[in-house]
Specification:
homodimer, alpha/beta, 2 domains, two-stranded antiparallel ribbon, 16 helices
């Protein structure tokens, strides 16, 4: 195991009827809140009113900043920062999924500096302070509600970049699984895919494999994401299914899976970010295309690693049958197991399904290469990324 | 899943050569520290000098309070409180295992009130503030380094009581697996047994079994405790073994396994605390005696629960063979699997092995009943506790 510091100070309030606590949690940290949210669905569902009432009851003054879209954009972040500065807000309340929470974090960091917020993402400036962020989560997927990271797309440069800092952990996150009853099947599945991708990135890229504590935890999270997603698709109002999917997605990227692994990479996200940036596909959909292709390529780099995953996630009877056939067979069936499951929940597994033509591969790879440099994934050349993408056709 | 609040603010600094950071971590919280530690072994190993040098380098003034013993005593806590008040210390540094850390927490809570500290344990007073606590962990076992609980024995009343409060999470805990190279085989095993017991209490007593996220996490921790313990016994200087055992024991009781389970009980600890209080046996040794007996009794209450554990922890091939024989067979083999493992690592599995005669059972049960009342384990009558203990002969 590698040395690590684990310090996740986010307070999670989880369960039914927890949203009315947003007011008292917020007023403990500030008096004037920027309320960040997405499109109109929150208003239709009654969630907007519930949050506004709670904030009003606690005497929090609210400045609104709605309109965050999926794959959130830098210019909308910049508008939020201008608003926060102008209005003198001292706390940010995010009501939404990962895109909304990431936007809130970027505003929290950008509101206390004079320079452009994008400089944090390109590594030209570092965070020294930030406004406190609270969240009300509406989608089980990104894990942003309990970590310090964020991903924003710069529409001018077509770059979708991620960045994190310990001052950006939300102070409090409220997770009410009932809010997610109305998440449609496709986005329910994309959320589960996103959680699985977060786990797989760490599982596959750690250089230190003497980490069984983390490995078993991650294998469990993958199985939980699958099982709970299937329950939600079968019955969107299955509380247990929604609750287990929500907590799984949070734990999949709250730092605990990574603690002790040493340096890890996000190569699948790197390639997917280019798909999102260039074609605006849903993040989870892009990931279910990239994952099997990347794993198929990675099979030749580290068969044992994929086979170890298979031992942890393949059904016991299937694993017993395969065990005599060697590592390679187990690894191949593990990739097939994941690909089949993505298809089962109707998440795409090929570029073709997303109407992205094979001719675009060099252009996608070129875009991904930009992020490879920022994330220091130096082993990924244009040729290698193209090779991986050809496995995704 | 049940509603929960999860908020664990402890900062973990894990790995090799991390002890020298104790000075800078401490001075950030206070200028005058009460240094709580156990018997002499820390001085022989050089750890005492390393900690003192780091504190001196950071200009922390140190008041010493050594002499904590295993199953820590109330009068020693009271002496520490008197010293802390007299010297005006503003931070507590614990260097040791669970007993030392628990003593430090009790002093931290007791130093800021006028009443006797035992009133917290009997529920007559509640904690409203506490001095900050930092820890340097020397034993993988109790999990106290990342939770808000503590267990102290009142030698006058022969009561070993536990108590917790959110203000008692250590601010920082330093976990260097290399410190544990010198832990002897018996205490290495008792530590692993303690971690397994913490997991089993939650796993078996939750009323909400629609909690697969927690269940899989716990099953993994049990397997990790077993595997890493065996590695440490085979080679006491196996860094990976020590590191995985240490992190497992911490995660086994840091609140994450319990979050979402709703109300849980600690019936096995309840009975073991009586063994420790009456016979001063090592906590882990007492637990390996109580666990199989309690599980054997519990088999008739909830066979399915034990069988579910078996599915998670029995070797895949063994489980496949058993699966056709029904739940009862799986559950029985699961208990046998645990008992056999305790014996394998030379932790006792009968009262006889600890020289506790069967005639003492009524007296032990009577003692345990006192804690059953405090912990509200109302289903445990004198007769039931005696029945469980008869299964431990």
């Amino acid at each position: 195991m590698q040395n690590f510091v684990f310090h996740n100070p986010t307070k999670i309030i989880f369960g039914r009827n927890t949203i009315p606590s947003i007011g008292s949690e917020t007023i403990a940290l500030g008096q004037k809140a920027l309320l960040v949210y997405g499109q109109g669905s929150m208003k239709e569902s009654g969630l907007y009113e519930e949050v506004m009432n709670s904030l009003a009851d606690a005497c929090v003054i609210v400045v609104e900043h709605g309109g965050v879209r999926s794959n959130p954009l830098l210019d909308h972040v910049q508008q939020g920062i201008a608003k926060a500065k102008q209005e003198g807000v001292d706390v940010i309340v995010a009501v939404g999924g990962g895109s909304v929470i990431d936007t809130a974090k970027a505003i929290a960091a950008g509101s206390v500096v004079e320079h452009d917020v994008w400089k944090f993402f390109t590594g030209k400036k570092s965070v020294k302070s930030a406004l406190p962020v609270l969240t009300v989560l509406t989608l089980a997927a990104a894990g942003s509600e309990m970590n310090s990271g964020m991903v924003i797309t710069n529409q001018d440069t077509q770059e979708k970049f991620g960045f994190g800092h310990r001052l950006l952990y939300p102070k409090t996150s409220i997770l009410d699984p009932e809010i997610t009853y109305t998440v449609p099947p496709d986005y329910t599945a994309y959320g589960a895919v996103d959680a699985i991708a977060h786990v797989l990135e760490f599982y596959m890229t750690t250089q230190d494999t003497d980490t069984p504590v983390q490995a078993r935890f991650m294998e469990g999270l993958i199985l939980n994401a699958m099982e709970s997603c299937e329950r939600c698709l079968a019955d969107p109002r299955d509380y247990g299914g929604r609750a287990n999917l929500m907590w799984t997605a949070t734990l999949a990227l709250n730092g605990l899976t990574a603690a002790g692994l040493g340096r890890v990479g996000f190569p699948m996200h790197m390639i997917e970010h280019s798909l999102s940036a260039l074609y605006d596909v849903p993040h989870g959909a892009g990931l279910s295309v990239v994952m099997p292709g990347w794993l198929q390529w990675y099979l030749y780099q580290d068969t044992a690693r994929i086979a170890r995953l298979g031992q942890g996630i393949l059904p016991s009877a299937q694993f017993q049958q395969l065990a005599g056939q060697g590592e390679r067979a187990v690894a191949e069936q593990t990739i097939a197991f994941l690909r089949t499951w993505f298809s089962k929940v109707h998440s795409p597994v090929t570029l073709t399904e997303m109407n992205i033509p094979a001719e675009d591969i060099p252009r996608i790879a070129e875009n991904a290469l930009g992020l490879a440099k920022v994330w220091r994934l130096n082993q990924y050349s244009q040729a290698i990324i193209e090779e991986i993408l050809r496995g995704c056709i």
